[in-house]
Amino acid sequence: MGTSERFVSSEDMLERLRNKSAFICDMDGVIYHGNRLLPGVLDFVKWMQREGKRYLFLTNSSERSPMELKLKMRRLGMEIDADHFYTSALATAGFLASQVPHGTAYVIGEAGLINALYEAGYSMNDINPDYVVVGESKTYNYETVIRAVNLVRNGARLIGTNPDMTGPSEEGIVPATGSLILPIASTANVKPYFIGKPNPVMMRQALMRLQSKREDTAIIGDRMDTDIVSGIESGIDTVLVLSGVSDVDTPKNFAYRPNLVLDSVGTLVPDNA
C-alpha cells in the first residue's frame, strides 16, 4: 500500500470500491449461510446487474458444479446464470489441463470436481494416474486413502482443491479438503499442492473469466486467511464483511489488513441506488 493510500478515509475507500467495474465474491458467509440468503445480498446483486458490473461468485468448495450453485441460488430467490459461479474444482481442472493436457487423475471428491476434470479433457485412472486429486468427499474412507497413498508413492502428484481444514454444513463444522488430504500426504511423505484460495492461481483464473484487470476489481469475503490474503497477494482491493466468520476485531490477529471492513455486501449499495 502506497503512502498516499494509507490515509484514505473509509468513505473515500467505499466510493472507490463502488466504482470498481468487477467484483469477486465469496459465497458462504457473504451471500448465504447454509440455505439462508443473507441481508442485503438481493439489493447488492441487483445493483451490480443494474450498473453493468461484472461479477463472479467464487467458492473454495469443490463439491457443487456451477449449475448446482445456480439452482441453489434459485431456491434462495435469486436468478443468476451458471457462468457467474467459479469453484476450486474448475480452478483445479484448469490448472491441471495447463500442466498436463489430457492427463489422468484418481479423484477423491464429488460430482462437481469429477465433472470439471472431464470437461477439461481429463479421464479417471486408478492404476497409474498423473495426479491424485482430493476435494470435499462424502465417500472418503480408509480404502480410498490407501489407494491414494500407493498411487502417490508410485509417482502420481498430489493435488488438493483447497487448503481449508474445516467447512460449514447443515450439521455444523465438518472436515474439509485440508484435513482429508493430510493422512495421504503424511503417509506418502509428500507435500500437496493446493489450487484454491489463497493461491493466486485461482485469482488469476477468476480475473481472466471476468476479463478484468486487477486494479478494476475488488474481492469480497468473510475470511482473512483465504479471501483477504488472496486479494492482497494478487494486488486486488479487498473488502472484509462481518456477515460470516469474522468480527470487527478479527483483522487485529493478522499482519495484513483489508482495504475496507463492512457489515455486509449491502453496505456497498449507494443509498440512492
Describe this structure in words.
This protein is of the alpha/beta class. The chain has 2 domains: 3-60 and 198-268, HAD superfamily/HAD-like (Rossmann fold, 3-Layer(aba) Sandwich); 100-194, HAD superfamily/HAD-like (Rossmann fold, 3-Layer(aba) Sandwich), CATH 3.40.50.1000. The chain is built from 9 helices and 15 strands. The chain has helices at 10-18, 41-50, 66-75, 88-99, 111-119, 142-153, 177-188, 200-210, 224-234, and strands spanning 22-26, 32-33, 36-37, 54-59, 85-87, 104-108, 123-124, 131-134, 157-160, 166-169, 172-175, 193-194, 217-221, 237-241, 260-262. The strands form 4 sheets. The chain has a 6-stranded parallel sheet, with helices on both faces. The model is unreliable at 1-7 (pLDDT under 50).
Can you summarize this structure?
The chain has nine helices and 15 strands. The protein is α/β, with parallel strands linked by helices.
Features:
single chain; 273 residues; alpha/beta; Rossmann fold; 2 domains; five-stranded parallel β-sheet; disordered N terminus
Q: Please indicate the percent range of residues in DSSP E strands (runs of 2 or more).
A: 15-25%
Intertermini distance? 30 Å
Task: Report the top-level CATH class of the largest domain.
Answer: Alpha Beta
The string of secondary-structure elements, in order, is: HEEEHEHEHEHEEHEEEHEHEHEE
Protein topology:
Elements: H1 10-18, E1 22-26, E2 32-33, E3 36-37, H2 41-50, E4 54-59, H3 66-75, E5 85-87, H4 88-99, E6 104-108, H5 111-119, E7 123-124, E8 131-134, H6 142-153, E9 157-160, E10 166-169, E11 172-175, H7 177-188, E12 193-194, H8 200-210, E13 217-221, H9 224-234, E14 237-241, E15 260-262
Parallel strand pairs: 1-4, 1-13, 4-5, 6-7, 6-8, 8-9, 9-12, 13-14, 14-15
Antiparallel strand pairs: 2-3, 10-11
Helix pairs in contact: 4-5, 4-8, 6-7
